[in-house]
Structures are given as C-alpha cells and as structure tokens.
Write a structure and sequence with these properties.
The protein is 61% helix and 4% strand. The protein contains six helices and two strands. Strands 1-2 form a two-stranded antiparallel sheet. The radius of gyration is 33 Å and the shape is elongated. The model is unreliable at 27-32 (pLDDT under 50).
Length: 191
C-alpha cells in the first residue's frame, strides 16, 4: 500500500490519503490499542458505509498540549456523562495506564512481601524443630564432648555454627531455585 493508491474494502474503493510511519508500541500484543500499525482511519461518512450500527465503540481524541491531558480527560468524561446519563464510560491514556499498572504491581509486591514473611516464619520454625531434634538425638555426642572437656559455650557454638550453615545453604538453594522459576516464567510469558 502506498499513498494515493486505492484500497478495496468490500465493493468500495477508497483512496489512501496518507500512511503512518511504523512505531514499536507493544510489538503485536494488542497493538491496535497502542500503535496505528494495524489500524485504518476513515472519515465518519465513509466508515458509516461499512459499519451497520448507530453507536461508537470508541473515540480517539488527539490532545495538542500534553500538559492538558488530565483536564481534557475530566472534561470528556463530564461531557459524555452529561450527554448520555446512565451510561458507563472510561477514558484511557498512557499516564492513566501507567498508574493502573503501577498500582497493580504495588499490590503484587505487597502480596509477595507477605508470602515472603510467612515463608521466613515457617522456615524459622522448621530450622528450630530440626535443631531441637538434632540436639535430642545427639545427647550421647554432647556427653562425649563434655567428657573431653568441652564447655556449654563450646557445645552451643558448635550447634549455632551448624544452624547458621544449614540456614545459609538452604536459603541459597531456595534463592537460586526461585530465580530459575522466575526465568522460566519470564521465558514462557515472553516478558
């Protein structure tokens, strides 16, 4: 397709007045919402020939001054609610989408934080249980250490070093395991 060529839509021939330069946008993921790469813009009179409905699904409005987007959004919403009472309208623009996505990500981060706290609590209880069982089962070893002259302080240090090593190694294992799962999810989701 080139400028001044004719495009055939059904029985109608439509002259191409201009072509938008290609933009990156979301590269194929709901691209028509973000970029004009796969969209045809027609004048209202011509589009009425193809669309057999008496309403619009969407209106696209271009704002000349980026600083007036919020004000324009409020005016459009007010005007539509005034013209069509009882109907539900929503407006979308980049800043609003960014705020919505940011809000969703903040909620997701909060949920992940709560899950992390819960996991730390459970793992702490698990390590405590393992150490109590370990001390109970190793009473004879503790007796031998005391017979060789080890004080309570030295025995406590031995168990604390084992506890720290166990916690550190298991923490590293879960960290790297989580990173691998994250990489797999990113690969699957194509992020």
């Amino acid at each position: 397709i080139r400028e001044n060529a004719f495009l055939k839509i059904g029985k109608h021939r439509i002259k191409v007045k201009g072509i938008f330069s290609e933009t990156k946008g979301m590269e194929g993921k709901l691209e028509s919402i973000v970029t004009p790469n796969i969209v045809i813009f027609l004048p209202l009179e011509i589009s009425n020939r193809f669309v057999l409905k008496n309403y619009f699904d969407a209106l696209e409005i271009k704002v000349t001054d980026i600083d007036t987007i919020n004000e324009t959004d409020k005016k459009i919403t007010w005007l539509l609610k005034d013209l069509f009472p009882g109907r539900i309208f929503s407006t979308v623009y980049a800043e609003k989408l960014q705020k919505t996505v940011s809000h969703i990500l903040d909620q997701f981060n909060t949920i992940i934080f709560i899950i992390g706290i819960f996991c730390l609590l459970v793992s702490g209880i698990g390590i405590m249980n393992i150490m109590l069982v370990s001390i109970h089962e190793r009473r004879s070893e503790i007796g031998i250490l005391k017979a060789l002259g080890a004080t309570r302080k030295i025995i406590m240090k031995i168990f604390l070093i084992e506890l720290i090593a166990l916690g550190f190694i298991s923490g590293l294992a879960w960290f790297f395991g989580g990173m691998i799962v994250l990489l797999i999810i990113q690969k699957i989701a194509n992020i």
